[in-house]
Amino acid sequence: MAYLKVALGFLVTAFLSATVSLAHPGLGFGWGGVGAPGGQSGAPSYGLFPQFYQFSCPQAEDIVISVLEMAIAKEPRMAASLLRLHFHDCFVQGCDASILLDNSATIVSEKNSLPNRNSVRGFEVIDEIKAKLEEACPQTVSCADILAMAARGSTVLSGGPSWELPLGRRDSKTASLSTSNNNIPPPNSTLQNLITLFQRQGLDEVDLVALSGGHTIGVARCATFKQRLYNQNGNNLPDQTLERTYYYGLKSVCPKSGGDNNISPLDFGSPVKFDNLYFKLILWGKGLLNSDEVLLTGNVGNTMELVKAYAKDENLFFKQFAKSMIKMGNISPLTAFNGEVRKNCRLVN
Are the beta carbons of 170 and 291 closer than 8 angstroms? Predict the structure, then answer.
């Protein structure tokens, strides 16, 4: 009889432990293959799964969307800024919200890196989402997951695709200024450089072209494309691939001297609508950044064919963009007892 009581005790303890693990953020278990890179079923899920907050904070995604709706209605450009924030986070130490950390005694902020300085934005929107989530579910939803949810929500609210988003990332206690300077592709990248930087993150050419399609929304500063207008190859001549009328229009926005912070839409035809016009513009010589244009003219791999395919078929682009966003969101996440769930996204606890 005593043995039976002990055995029952073990069973009850095991059941309760399993229940707590399901409800507790941070104890991430990968159910099946959900959240695998590229959305492939059966591949490792790194402890991320879409139902991660089902018990601990079931209202999390509704809270994120409610803040996004207001922020994007007020400033449509914000959708692109939040999408870019997730991208710039994942390419440095993985998707761990390191980009959100401010300077402190122990942190040199990634916000000061060359790709981020005077450029990344949307931090106040993330702060607002975090504050509302802390109110509803204290110390439960990570800043890294907020970035991933904000990127998806921004895409959807701009008319783009949705995807089943694996969750359960935790937040880093460190940042890396040097990695931010070295890993984020610069706007004047060659195609080979882009492919190399994406491969470093486990992303291939298909991911490169599909994720570049995120430039269908948003703007870029004059400083990022000035070289194409005035000195593309060090010979004081413009980039010959630029369509002539488009070139003159850009010159009026971006003078040879000064005006570095003047902005131009990445997709001037529909700058706040998530569609496939970005790829059509590249085919017409109207891609804004060198890193956009080389997808067509770089003569490496299959990027030209992919640009043409996505220009022709928006649905194909949307499907691949969703897959590649899931894959990117799986870059080296912190799970289980690694990292922490920050109370304030700008500071370690």
Answer: no
